What does this fold into?
Amino acid sequence: MIRIAQLSCGSEYSGVQGELEKAAEMVGAELVFPEVSLEDVRNVEERFGIKVASGDLNLAMARATRIVENPDLADAVFVATCFRCAEGAIVRSEIRKYIHENSRIPVLSYSFTERTTAETLLTRMEALVTTAKFKGLLARERQTGLTAGIDSGSTTTKAVVMRDNEVIGTGWVPTTEVIKSAEDAYNAALESAGVKKEEIQGLGTTGYGRHLVGKEFGAKLIQEEITVNSKGAVFLADAQRGEATVIDIGGMDNKAISVQDGIPGTFTMGGICAGASGRFLELTARRLGVEITELGKLAMKGDHQKVPMNSYCIVFG
It folds into this structure.
């Protein structure tokens, strides 16, 4: 069983601890809490260079140092603090940075609310488990044989066919009905590749509809989108060796992923704010009468100092 070290503050008081444990159980993992000494807690200020009032935050930092010094204590790390706590946000970021720079243990940071549920945590926990369990698979630099993949996203459904490390067919359709959209995208990719479905040696699925599509199509691999998208990005960018940063703007949320030699190391995932979604960018482009690919260039031409802002929320402000 994969051991996920929980470094957190306030999860018990906010009532989300049970949801964290449930999410871990859903992906076949268990939460562990590395033991530390009082001396370890007293030394965190010197180690991290920051002084915080919260005892729980100091304990979280002490546990982080314990894990770095004894990496066999955990297979992955989950850092969580309340979204209302500015001090917690700083410590969460510092812990993630510390573990990422001083170990090869995958780490995820998350700011929870009182409404956080196991379902909202599922993709994050699943990504931690995938990274910990399948490092060998993620580290592979070449694809062999004739394989296919389907990404059942919230806004669009994509499919790809590869033969011996080369993309030979693709399909891309709007997501309407999950299964039908997957069939349309897959058939388009097969037609583009000039191969028949029976010839495919292995199929994988990802995205929000991955489990439903995977079951329907008999997929050999069903994997969350964080590890899949990061691996796909470094493959396409020819950056499978060394460090890379992947920013994935999805229909419902976005993700920032640090990758080392093709393996995700630390990542964060948006979702609370509507402005952090590709769907919002699509609507913005439509209102402006431009293609979504033009938004970046338009933004670079702007001058934020000339725009009066009376709210920090771009959606409802």
About this structure: The mean pLDDT is 90. The chain has twelve helices and twelve strands. The first strand starts at residue 2 and ends at 9. The CA atoms of residues 141 and 209 lie 26 Å apart.
